[in-house]
Amino acid sequence: MRLLSSLGTSSRWHSREAIRYFTSDDDNELLHAATSTGMASELLLKLFIGRTSVALLADKGHADSLLLLANHPATSDMPLSAFRSIAAGQALTLAKKMGLSIPGPSGDFAPFVVRNSAAHLATVDTDELTKAVELHSTLTKELFDHLSIDPKSFWGDENWGAVEQLIEDKHNKDKARYTAKLSAAKQRFEELSQTLGPSVLEAFRATRKPRVSIGFSIGTDESVAFDCPACGSVGQLIYHVQDEGSIHYEPGGGAWMDQWADPAFFECPICELELEQDEVYRLPGAEDYIPDGREVEEDELHQMDYDEDMWRDR
Q1: Per-residue pLDDT reduced to its tens digit, 41-57
Q2: 78 and 16, same structural domain?
Q3: DSSP state at residue 261
Q4: For residue 235, what are the domain limits?
Q5: What burial letters (b/e) apply to 134-145, b meaning 16+ CB within 10 Å?
């Protein structure tokens, strides 16, 4: 039946949109992800119910809706929008009665909560959204067993790694967010490549620069060129640089101090991949950078000697 096919196709599209945008830093993309998460869950639940009987999708046995499903001649001039469907919460309650093991009351189902908040108030909480995408991913795993759907073909190869981590490794959300961001950046780069073509893409790569100049050093921050793991372009990795404390004295005078660098933020100007906090530690080689150290000024050395005298009560 065409209705069931539409439910399956649309739930797949919304699921892919949710996994692509739930890690975004753009408010509108987060709202889009929240809306898609709720839509995907509702449509997939209705597909599950409709596989038993499409009549179960008609709200309270609504006569015109049932006639529409039966393609009765009396509804030949009636648009499909006249169909009165059960609500999302009703679909969830019915799916539970039909054997789905979904924890918690239907009114607190995270994908529906974030969808309603986004659709009616244009607000989204990123923690709630992550929880909703995680719950939707877990829901699809159980539904696929009932519907005989291949998970990889539903989510797409580019998204499956992140989805798998959300399902299997719930306690490591940073890993899942890193994989999801990487996947979204790869998709953006692929779309960019198809739009620009090889020659224009190379010119675009040559002219597009990070927002902060590579090689800068301001205060305790230092920017280093770093290859993007999503598209291979040159991005920048910003480190917080701190003194180690040990001083080395030069034979001819002068002194310098060792430093260590803590990776803090990565950005690619081409595919727009941005990683921060714990995500950036997952970049292969991010922790290999060793700063050159810094020269210690003479007045700083005197201050250090004075501080040591005070500490030792000399």
Answers
A1: 999 999 999 999 888 88
A2: yes
A3: E
A4: 208-312
A5: bbbbbbbeebee
